[in-house]
Structure formats: structure tokens, C-alpha cells
UniProtKB/TrEMBL annotation:
InterPro entries: CB, DNA_brk_join_enz, Integrase-like_cat_sf, Integrase_catalytic, Integrase_recombinase_N, Integrase_SAM-like_N, Recomb_XerD, Tyrosine_recombinase_XerC/XerD. Transmembrane segments: none annotated. Forms a cyclic heterotetrameric complex composed of two molecules of XerC and two molecules of XerD. Site-specific tyrosine recombinase, which acts by catalyzing the cutting and rejoining of the recombining DNA molecules. The XerC-XerD complex is essential to convert dimers of the bacterial chromosome into monomers to permit their segregation at cell division. It also contributes to the segregational stability of plasmids. Keywords: Cell cycle, Cell division, Chromosome partition, Cytoplasm, DNA integration, DNA recombination, DNA-binding. Residues 108-292 form the Tyr recombinase domain. This is Tyrosine recombinase XerC. The lineage of its organism: Bacteria, Pseudomonadati, Bacteroidota, Flavobacteriia, Flavobacteriales. Its main location: cytoplasm.
Length: 298
């Protein structure tokens, strides 16, 4: 088995068996491709079935000179998954990364925005332009529902259950969840639908897509990043932010206002509560409040 075929089979496994998104599959594939490129550059002719732990170790050492410990740990994790798949399919007997430890990385706390900063970003939107109402609805939805950017651009009209106060969100691994949506967010989405979207020439296959570009097609991830970057510059915000910043802010503000961590986990679509627990580190005063309110010796 050569590298190209092994990677093709692995991608199929991740898509069909694991149900992972295209973005996640691409990221895993890039980790394997980095190793393939390194082998080619160093004229090392080995297959994914025969490559030894020593050769993989040399590749890991070369990474340490080029990327930070966090990126290094992510690549090691990606390769470990690839070779675990080969072991699972009986192409290999052992995983060459089994005994290779990932570098220690500090836990990076997510950046957040204050409510004032979010209001400032939204105020920077030019509502005189056709895309203004759409962009306001996008930011309000990102922050108001704590969505990932991929979840936002995949939202459909048929996912909106405003009468019940929920939207249906399709997250990682094609898993669906229902997220509460505030009346204020509903209002901005309806303004966009009734004043802008209804007048657009919508391309075939995108009739059910909620947020559309000027050509009547689904927005791209890159476009959402561009919208936020431009608004950040227009509002004079000094922080480096992304669509995910709104999701972090959503979770942090809920926690600060006393929301239950399990409820936040469900709304964010985190599979493990440990992923959600990172927000506790952002506001340790929340822990003190919990102790003072619920401990029997308070």
C-alpha cells in the first residue's frame, strides 16, 4: 500500500465510519501530507506500512525546529490517528507513534469580547447597504446562539423554529441539536429575510439556505472571517478576533451570569463537559459564587 492510497482510504474511513466534517478530514489529511512531503524531501523511500518509529521520530524532531509545541502536538495526534487506522485495518502490527509523547502545551484560554465591544462591532455595520441587515443578523446569531462558523453558514430556513424559540443546528459529525434563540435575534433574522433576502435572485439548490451572498448562494467560511475583520477595523477594536470569538463570548457571558455548565455544554454541542470547563478558567469568581451559594458550610 502506498501513501496516496492509504490516505484516500483513511479519508473514506473518517467520512463514512466516523462521520467527520470535510474541514476536520482535511486537517487530518494535512498532517499525513506533511510527513509524506518530508519523506520526499529527504529521499526516504518507505511505505505507510513499513515506516519505522525511528523515521517518524526524525520527522517529529524536524517539526520542533519549525512549529510551536501546540502545532507539533496537533500533528502528532493526527498522525497517531492515521497509523491507528492502519493497525485497525491490519495493514500494520504496531503504531509507530505509540511511544512518542506529545510536547507539553499550556492550556490556551479563548479570547472573549465584552458586551460593549460586541455592541460596538454591530454599530459599525453600514445598514444603508443591502448586506448590512444580513451582516447584523449574522453577528447577532453567532453571539446569540454560540454557533461555530460552519454551523452558521449551514443554517437553513427549515431549521428555524421561532414559534418554539429554538433553531436546529447541525454540528460536528453531522450531529443535530436544538439551541434557544432570543426574540431579539429572531427580530434581526426576520428583518434580513423580509427586507433583503426576499428580493434576491436565489440560485438553484440554495433556496433553503438562510444567509446568502450577493449571487444568491451560501456564504463561505472565508467570507464570515472577512466580514468580522472589516467590522473590527471599522470599530477600532484592537483585539484579534474571529467568528469563534463570538462563540467563546456567548459561553463566558452565560457562565458569568450564573448559567449551569451542563446547559452551556448542550447549547455549544460539546461532546465532553471537559471542553466546556475551559470557560470556568476565564472567570474564577464564578467558582467562588457557587461555593458561597451551594456549600453547606457557606
Amino acid at each position: 500500500m502506498n501513501w496516496k492510497n492509504a490516505l484516500k482510504d483513511y479519508r473514506s474511513y473518517l467520512k463514512i465510519e466516523r462521520g467527520l466534517s470535510e474541514n476536520t478530514i482535511t486537517n487530518y489529511s494535512l498532517d499525513v501530507e506533511k510527513l509524506m512531503k518530508w519523506l520526499e524531501e529527504h529521499e526516504i523511500s518507505v511505505s505507510p506500512v513499513s515506516i519505522s518509529e525511528e523515521v517518524v521520530q526524525q520527522f517529529i524532531y524536524s517539526l520542533a525546529k519549525k512549529v510551536n509545541s501546540r502545532s507539533q502536538a496537533r500533528i502528532i495526534s493526527g498522525l497517531r490517528g492515521f497509523f491507528s487506522y492502519l493497525v485497525f485495518e491490519d495493514y500494520r502490527k504496531t503504531n509507530p507513534l505509540e511511544l512518542i509523547e506529545s510536547p507539553k502545551t499550556g492550556r490556551k484560554l479563548p479570547d472573549t469580547l465584552s458586551t460593549e465591544e460586541i455592541d460596538s462591532l454591530i454599530a459599525a455595520i453600514d445598514l444603508s447597504k443591502p448586506e448590512g441587515e444580513r451582516n447584523r443578523a449574522i453577528l447577532e446569531t453567532l453571539y446569540g446562539c454560540g454557533l461555530r462558523v460552519s454551523e452558521l453558514i449551514d443554517l437553513r430556513l427549515s431549521d428555524l423554529f421561532f414559534a418554539e424559540g429554538f433553531i436546529k443546528v447541525t454540528g460536528k459529525g453531522s450531529k443535530s441539536r436544538f439551541v434557544p434563540i432570543a426574540e431579539a435575534t429572531q427580530k434581526y433574522i426576520n428583518l434580513y429575510r423580509e427586507q433583503i433576502r426576499i428580493h434576491q435572485d436565489i440560485q438553484k439548490g440554495h433556496e433553503d439556505t438562510l444567509f446568502l451572498n450577493r449571487r444568491g448562494r451560501k456564504l463561505t467560511r472565508a467570507m464570515i472571517f472577512t466580514i468580522i475583520r472589516q467590522l473590527s477595523e471599522a470599530s477600532g477594536l484592537k483585539k484579534k478576533i474571529s467568528p469563534h470569538t463570538f462563540r467563546h463570548s456567548f459561553a463566558t457571558h452565560l457562565l458569568e451570569n450564573g448559567a449551569d455548565l451542563r446547559a452551556i455544554q448542550q447549547m455549544l454541542g460539546h461532546e465532553s463537559i471537559t471542553t466546556t470547563e475551559i470557560y470556568v478558567h476565564l472567570d474564577r469568581s464564578h467558582l467562588r459564587k457557587v461555593m458561597e451559594e451551594f456549600h453547606p458550610r457557606r
